Amino acid sequence: MAVRLPRGFRMGAVRAGIKPSGKPDLALLASGLPALWAYAATQNRAAAPSVHRGRRLYAEGRPLRAVVVNAGNANCATGERGFRDDERLAELAAFRLGLSPEEVLTASTGVIGVPLPVEKVEKALPQLELGPFADPFAEAILTTDLAVKVAEREVEGARLVGVAKGSGMIHPNMATMLAFLVTDARVPQEVLRERWKGIVDRTFNQVTVDGDTSTNDLAVVLANGAYGEVPLGPFFAALEEVARELARKIARDGEGATKLMTVRVYGAATEEEARRAARAVAASPLWKSALYGNDPNWGRILAALGNSGARFDPFRVEIRLQGIPLYRGGALPFDREKASQAMRAEEVVVEADLKEGPFQAEAWGCDLTEGYVRINALYTT
Questions:
Q1: 227 within 8 A of 184, measured Cβ to Cβ
Q2: Which position among 19, 47, 242, 377 has the lowest Cβ density within 10 Å, counted as fewest Cβ atoms?
Q3: Which residues line the annotated binding site?
Q4: Could you report the per-residue pLDDT of 192-211, keeping only the tens digit for each?
């Protein structure tokens, strides 16, 4: 079912010929009103020109009116030309919408080190049609993804819609993911920016597929105020729900994955330690391999927790898998075959109680399969 955008927003996509598949690969998001915004991007030192430009615009603090995205080409590690091409991408989108380039955010995703074919963008953009639904945009930004990722909520009449892409090269401090959330609620920009960082830390930065942090990642939320004011408590709760749903969809769609892994850590001394412990389990190649093989090898979970930097006493910690107690300060007797059968599910839940404090966190990942190796062994060949 098509997902309708909040008031004042339009999205569209077109085939520009950037993706070898010939699928839609150029997407545009536009707001009829200036939109206040909050932004987070990759911490990779080899960040793409789109990330550098986004950080500059963010620091300047002016509203946005549009976002243009190309998929199939990261426009990264292409020297000075890459920065010129990124600026040209903004200029072309601005011309298409009758805006200033400084009102347009850019994003790119795809192969690193290949010049962006700007001439294809120039030819395709005039043919791009905008409409009130998120679906064409959500499809066009995909690369190795198998599934479109869209989430929506309502808060007392205001709408929130989020669109994301991400499948591989996913690890905390952003991942190979792009996320665009839009709302017609009116939210003060300083509050939006302050709260967005925590939401990103608890959602998108808790996703890991393969331990690699990409060069192009970003997550942005735009609020154009077309609906009006709403209570900020329920609004930010809904915003986090949308971000969490998108994060879970990214993890479930991990390259070659057969199942979603949810890791819940309780009883941590600090929130940061809870997040680190949960991420460590979700990122462990040994545990991810055991997950694929339906092997309830709890020792790999305990080892990942111990390597996370989170404080705990291994003689007090508890570990459960699909609700089955496996470890409580020592190995517990359990039916190994029953536990293995419980792992043959769309979602496998790992729970660990560190017994150190009141804080908890979740992280999301997936199993590690032969499919992941095949996809990435042949990515450019």
A1: yes
A2: 377
A3: 143, 165, 176, 255, 376, 381
A4: 999 999 999 999 999 886 55
- Bind-site residues for substrate: 143, 165, 176, 255, 376, 381
pLDDT at 170: 47
Q: How confident is the model at residue 132 (pLDDT cuts 50, 70, 90)?
A: very high
Q: Averaged over 371-375, what is the pLDDT? A: 70
pTM over 0.70: yes
207 contacts 172 by C-beta, under 8 angstroms: yes
Tokens found for residue 356: 């150190």
Task: Give the residues across from 158 on adjacent strands.
Answer: 155
Considering the candidates 78, 144, 176, 213, report the single residue annotated as catalytic: 176
- Determine the angle formed by the axes of helices 285-292 and 298-306, rounding to 10 degrees: 160
**Domains by residue range for the chain, with CATH:** 9-250 (3.60.70.12), 260-377 (3.10.20.340)
Strands 149-155 and 260-268: unpaired
Question: Angle at which helices 271-283 and 298-306 pack, to 10 degrees?
Answer: 130
At 351-365, the pLDDT tens digits run 999 999 999 999 999
Q: Is 147 helix (H, G, I), strand (E, B) or coil?
A: coil
Give the mean model confidence (pLDDT) for residues 87-101: 98
User: How many angstroms separate the CA atoms of 45 and 26, rounded?
Assistant: 26
CA angle 129, 132, 134 (to 5 degrees): 90
Q: Is 375 exposed, middle or buried (0-12, 13-18, 19+ CB in 10 A)?
A: middle
Residue among 175, 178, 207, 373 nearest 282 (CA): 207
Cα→Cα distances 233→152, 186, 239, 311, Å: 17, 13, 10, 32
- Give the tens place of pLDDT for each residue, 151-173: 999 999 999 999 999 865 444 45
Beta strands across the sheet bearing 260-268: 324-328, 318-321, 347-353, 260-268, 359-366
Beta-bridged to residue 348, according to DSSP, are: 261
